[in-house]
Fold:
Amino acid sequence: MMRQLRAEWTKFRTVRGWVTGMALAGGFIIAFGLFPGMQGTCTDNKCKLPTGPQGHLVTDRFEFAGQTLDGDGSLTVNVTSMTGELPPGPNAEQPRQGLTPWAKAGLIIKDGTKAGSPYAAIMLTGSHGVRLQHNYLYDQAGAGAASWLRLTRAGDAITGEQSADGTHWTKVGTVVLKGLPTKVQAGLFATSPQHSEASALLSSSGPSSVTATFRQVSQQGSWSGQLEETELTGSGDIGPLVSGSSGLGVSVTQALAGTFLGLVFAIVIGTTYVTSEYRRGLMRTTFSATPRRGRVLAAKAIVAGGATFVTGLVAATVAVVFGQKMLRDNGVFVHPVTTATEVRVIVGTAALLALCTVFGVAIGVLLRRSALAVTIGVTGIVLPYILAMSVLPDGAGRWLLSISPAAAFAIQQSAVEYAHVANNYIPTEGFFPLSPWLGFAVLAAWTAVAVGLAAVVISRRDA
Structure:
C-alpha cells in the first residue's frame, strides 16, 4: 500500500494543473478572508461589552424601578397589561403596534447595577408565557397563564412563583446565585429586544419596545424604600449577546466566506485526478501495476484528500487568524470564541475540503467523464449552499442544508443559538439547521456511499 501511495503522490505533484488548482483553492479562501470589504464602527473601544458571570458577552439593558433589599425578603406584583411597538416589517416604513415574542416585564433581583452582574428574574413575555431566568444563559418556563409574579430571596437562593389570581401560587423554580451580597437591588423591570422577521426573500430587523403596567406591589423584608405602582417602558434585552441581524457584529465564520470557491477547485481536482487517467488510457497501466483495484481507489482518495486537507488547514488558519484581525481593524465587532471552537472551525474546514475531494474522486470513478463528474459534484455540494444563502426561502434553505452534502458547512458555525434570545437563526446569519458535527456527518455519509459504489464499479468494470 505504501508503494501505491508513493506512486499516486508522484502523479499528483507532477501534474501542474492539480498543483495549481490546489493553490487556487487555498488562495481563494485566504483572499476572501483577508479582503477588507466589511466596515464597522467598533473603533476606540466603542464596542466594549459587558461579560456575565460565566464570562460570556451579554446584553444588559432594561428599564428599572427598584430599591435596595437588605437580606432576605420578597416582592410581589400584578402585571395588568403589556403593550409594545415593533419596527417596520419587510417592505414597510412605519412602526407597528405589537409585542415581540421575547418582550419581558416582571421582577428582578440583581447584584448591583453594573452591567453583567448576576441576577435572577421572573417575568411575563410577549408570547412565551412566564419565565424564570438568571445569569443571562439560563431560562426556565412556567406553567399556564398568570399575571401575578413573586420573587423571594433566602440567602443565595431565589425562588420565582406565578399566580393567576394573586391567591393561589405555583412555584416556577429556584435558582442559586453564589456569593450574592447581603444588599442587592430588586424591583420592577421592562425590556424588549431587537425584533426580526423573515419573509420569502427578505428579512428585517429593528428595535422594539414594551410598556408594562405594574399594580398592587407588595414587599416583605428590609427595603430602603417603598416601590410604587407604576408604568415602565423599556427597550433592550437581558441575556447572552448573539451575532446576526438581531445582535451585534459577525462570527468567526465570516472569515471563511471563500470556502465555497475553494470547494469548487477541490471537486474539480478530485474528479479530474481520476477521469484524466481514464481519458488517456493510463488507468490500464495503473491496474496492471496494482491488480487490486480497491487499493488504487483508496490510494487516490488518500493522496487527493490528504493534499486538500493540508492546503485547507493552512488556508483556514490564515483566514481565521488574520481575517479576524482585519475585520476588527476595520471596526467590525467579531464575537470571541473559545480556542476549542476556533480549532474545530479551522480543522473542520480542512476536513470539509478533503471529504469533498474524496467525493469528487468517487464521482470520477463512477462517471469517468470530467465535465459530467464536475457538474454533479458542484451541483451536489456547492449549489445547495449558494441557493440556501441567496434565493431560497428560509424553510427550503434549512431543509436543503439538512439533507444535502452542503450540510457539512455547519462545521464552520461558531455563533451560538439560544432558545430564549430573539434573533434570525437562519443560514444567512451564520446559523445552520444541524449541529456542526451532525452536519459534517451528512457529508461523510454521502461520501461513504459514493466511495462504496465506486469500489464496486472499479472492481467490475473494464478500465
